[in-house]
Amino acid sequence: MAVAAWTDAPVWKVPPVRAPWRLLPLAATVLLTAVPYRGDGAGPADLASGLLVLTCLGYVLHRRARPLSAAAAVVLGLPALGAAVATATAADPLAALPGYVRYVQVFVLVPAAVVLLVRDARDFRFVLGALVALALLEGGVGVHQYATGTGASYMGEDIRAVGTFGPTGVMGMATVVSYGLLAAVALALAAPASAPRRLRPAALAVAAVLVVPLALSFSRGAWIATALALAAMLLLAGARLAVRVFAAAAAAAVVLVGGLGLGSAMVSERLSSITQVTDAPDRSVNDRYTMWAAAASMWQERPAAGVGLKGFPAHRDGHASIALSSGSDTAGAGQGFQKQPLLSPHNMYLLVLSEQGLIGATAFIGGWAAILAAGLRRAARARRGHGRGTAADCGLAAAGLLLWQTADFLYADIGGPSTVLTGVVLGLAAWWAFAHRREAARP
Hints:
The protein is mostly helical and 443 residues long. Helix content is 67%, strand content 4%. It is built from 17 helices and four strands. It has helices spanning 2-8, 24-31, 44-63, 70-88, 93-117, 121-148, 170-190, 199-216, 220-237, 239-259, 264-274, 283-301, 312-319, 348-384, 392-408, 419-434, 437-441; strands spanning 152-154, 157-160, 328-332, 335-340. The strands form two sheets. It has a two-stranded antiparallel sheet with strand order 1-2. Strands 3-4 form a two-stranded antiparallel ribbon. Helix 12 crosses helix 13 (312-319) and helix 15 (392-408) packs across helix 16. The longest helix has 37 residues, at 348-384. The two termini are 27 Å apart.
């Protein structure tokens, strides 16, 4: 009953605005992620996200809008509270403060701005279009890197597709390509009745094209998360459709990998390594297991509030076993060889648990679970309405994107130029979960 109350509660009362000017900073935040950036400070996308938040603030004040519903404010505001406790109780609060700012940016301010600036399904699809455009750009760069041997180093060859993110951000391209693929699939499965007839086949073609750079990213975590999200989206769209799509996808995989030999040997080797993570793990998997154990040990030492934001690197050596290597080797994609230090457990849930304890973990995971539960419920209801006037494509996209993120967080955490997109995705999912049903249904 509580979830139903949340999903049906009004979020704001603002007259419709036809001009999409308020969405331009949001589109810039998405698209500027592709700008190469190797610094340690705020990148172009982060600066654009600051403009996004300021635009949202000005829009709310100018329109005298009611900012957020109580449910949305609580769910999106809880991470700030958990991070604040971890910052205040850290051994060095000043050192933890940049981490607090980053968490508030990604998990509070950017999602809240998206919820407030996206007014209807048309706005939602505008953001999806920006994600698809970014995915096509990065995917095209990635395929070119593989074909010309100018990508990141992988098994002694410079063939790993990383897009504009470089060898130190190997998950960046895989992340944005996955987002774009899921957005395209949502439009292909449940395009609105008012959309041109060519939209569905075009969206399906885009999704098929994006499978190639995703495969060439050699990112096992992104593959697993994408497969789970796609399966959930297909089941939400209908069991019969799911069976047909699974069959078509299997046939396409046979043609692309088996018939055309597209990266067949290395892709097959990477796929087979997923089943060997317990019997014969490679060095990267072994390092990950070691860091997971270190994160769990930190939490056991300080179970309530954790070791503090930005505290994992400082406490790592005191909790990790000697099996942990000194770092991961990176090279290629225009950069020379360098040893990248292992400064996080590569698991968002364990990172939050180790640095913020049960207080922070409850705030973060509880908020994501509430958004996911409300969003899935509304997506299923939209499906029962057969997609007419229910923006079913938005529901599928919101569910798929958030499911992908929650699954990927089992193998990754925040960090790198694509981090700000996590806030955009969370905002889209929160809008779908908490927007009034009339606003979600508006074409």
